[in-house]
Amino acid sequence: MTALKLLREKEREVRRELIITAAQKLFAESDFRKVTAREIARTAGVSPGTIYRYYKNMDELFLDVFLIHANEISRLIDLEYEREGQCSIHRYCEIQVEYLNENMSFYQMMSHFMLSGALPSETSKKMDPIMRRLLDLLERVFKESGVEKDTRLRAHALFSSLNGTMISYARYPGRDLEEIKKHTLRLAAIIADQFSA
Amino acid sequence: MTALKLLREKEREVRRELIITAAQKLFAESDFRKVTAREIARTAGVSPGTIYRYYKNMDELFLDVFLIHANEISRLIDLEYEREGQCSIHRYCEIQVEYLNENMSFYQMMSHFMLSGALPSETSKKMDPIMRRLLDLLERVFKESGVEKDTRLRAHALFSSLNGTMISYARYPGRDLEEIKKHTLRLAAIIADQFSA
Amino acid sequence: MTALKLLREKEREVRRELIITAAQKLFAESDFRKVTAREIARTAGVSPGTIYRYYKNMDELFLDVFLIHANEISRLIDLEYEREGQCSIHRYCEIQVEYLNENMSFYQMMSHFMLSGALPSETSKKMDPIMRRLLDLLERVFKESGVEKDTRLRAHALFSSLNGTMISYARYPGRDLEEIKKHTLRLAAIIADQFSA
Amino acid sequence: MTALKLLREKEREVRRELIITAAQKLFAESDFRKVTAREIARTAGVSPGTIYRYYKNMDELFLDVFLIHANEISRLIDLEYEREGQCSIHRYCEIQVEYLNENMSFYQMMSHFMLSGALPSETSKKMDPIMRRLLDLLERVFKESGVEKDTRLRAHALFSSLNGTMISYARYPGRDLEEIKKHTLRLAAIIADQFSA
DNA sequence: CATGAATGAGGCTTCATTCAT
DNA sequence: CATGAATGAAGCCTCATTCAT
Questions:
Q1: Proximity of residue B46 CB to strand E below 7 A
Q2: pTM score
Q3: How many CA atoms lie within 13 A of A58 on its CB side?
Q4: What are A61-76's pLDDT values in tens digits?
Q5: What architecture (CATH level 2) is domain A58-196?
Q6: Which of B93, B110, C75, C88 shows its CA 20 to 30 Å from the CA of B80?
């Protein structure tokens, strides 16, 4: 009885994973706004209708991908603490920008949601705690680096500065991915410098 | 003959202006991605087909609006120099963020282009000199503020940080435009601080 | 063995009842064409698949509801006879129209079936005896009211006239349910008058 | 100038006619609710998108067909007056029922709209005058037949009775179109009788 | 050169029905 | 026999772009 239910839930989780993974894959390949429900379904090996058993609509799926990304960055910071016992502002910037370089859909979606006008309350209800957690981590980084004033505000400023850097240079014409990574990391280092002062 | 030609060109310029102005107006009123070619045509008082005599496609028109915005920021900095004889990093940040607050389509479009994948070479050919001019100005601001090292890189970093700030908080759920302006200006001040160190 | 079988059948009957009742409830709440199989299942507390153990498809379920309605009208006429020993044409019209006012899905479904093109023979096999019984009753009403000629035809005519009245005025724009009831009853009275001549 | 405009309007009218005619043709062939926008477009020899240049949505197209039917009935009555100088209740019923037999989509649509719940105000704004005109005509028929009391109400009652007859017997299982026509005309005659009393 | 009607591919989503468990 | 997740065809409609006038 319970075993069956567990199996069901497991399967559900697996299929959801399938869909999300397919979505992420496609988003990574090109502009996420161009990716269609049908494509995701095909890539995930499910039918279009199935997506809607897991997500009320495409925006919900987008949100999910976005939140996964945000969580992953948090996890990377956690990991840094675990491994090194600390995380400098420099290191934080590096981690975030490296992550963004490899997961462009994150700030693509950030833009998507941020520029979409008022988000449905349900959306922001899901988004808020996860973003808060990320900012908490960043605030901690500041504090442990000796910054005492306006740490929350600085966390906001730094986080969005790094995103802006990516948006501004992510696909700068005439540069390939490797160059862009270098450039954005260089910019990140400068920004880190400034924020460490 | 030549007079006629001039007249023709004049008319052409006027119509182009009409279209651009209509587009800007509509973009300002809402999310630019929701604005349709027909709407722009209607607002401009021309037919949809006419838009395509002036722009190969919608993206070209977007680009034009984008470049106008970039130029306007440059002009604002110029103005500051004319009026005050100087422009501090603080003042620069203030000007840019204020402008962005009132012209959201600028960074909306920046996102649009940056996230669209490789830009057509023609696009970047138009974009480059104008962006370069803006960054030149910002570099000058740095230099005159006593910053000597990595001024170009810092210009890049600052510019994109400010944009990122706007994208991240432009439509923060639950805040009205006035609050957002205040918040982003506060963040801009912090960023300015950091970059002035 | 037999006891078990009986139990099984009992259970089957109960579940069928559950489904039908749920369907009727939902049909009563809104336009029956908008009610989905899933909704019915959910309301009945069964799974969507279960519906198909009892009905080959949705149309069969619709038919069942339709027939229940037809039977209920018959029963109301029977009741009238039991209580009053007679049933005038006027009274008949009143009963039918009152019933239709409270069970709009009846003539909604009548329309549905009648307009669907050729009904499957199985459908009409189920429909025929029940409609015949209703018309028998109405014929009897005519006969006992002293009408002798063409009673069957008149029964047909009266029955469908009353339905038509409802369809034409059921949701007359700008009138509420109470007004519609009044209006249709007034029309029914007129029709009754004509048929009593 | 004006000539061109006139031509344009002419063309517009022609294409609209094309669409409507295609729609009517398809409606006549089967259940109008099953007819899709694509089918209509294909039959009319236009693209799906074109339909939406003429109608805001499918319901508007349905409404147009409906109104055309209503007008045609009115015109048939007018014609009868022109030809015969009068129109008896019998004749009226005959005309309506004959028309309905050949244009089943009329009462299909009547049902569709009537059962759809509150009609959009724009819909009823278009519908009202045309239905009123038809009822005016029918009222005149009553008056000229010597009926003096409740003529409006009787007009309502008669009109909807005839529709109901069609809905109830239009596709009565096991009868072909010719039989149904005969049967409904017979019913119409009876109804006419009653209303003439 | 402007017009603007027509195009038609393609988007999202729904829902009756099936079928493995 | 019930379940309910998955299916996938099919619906409506939008909108950038084209092209005959």
A1: yes
A2: 0.87
A3: 16
A4: 999 999 999 999 999 9
A5: Orthogonal Bundle (1.10)
A6: B110
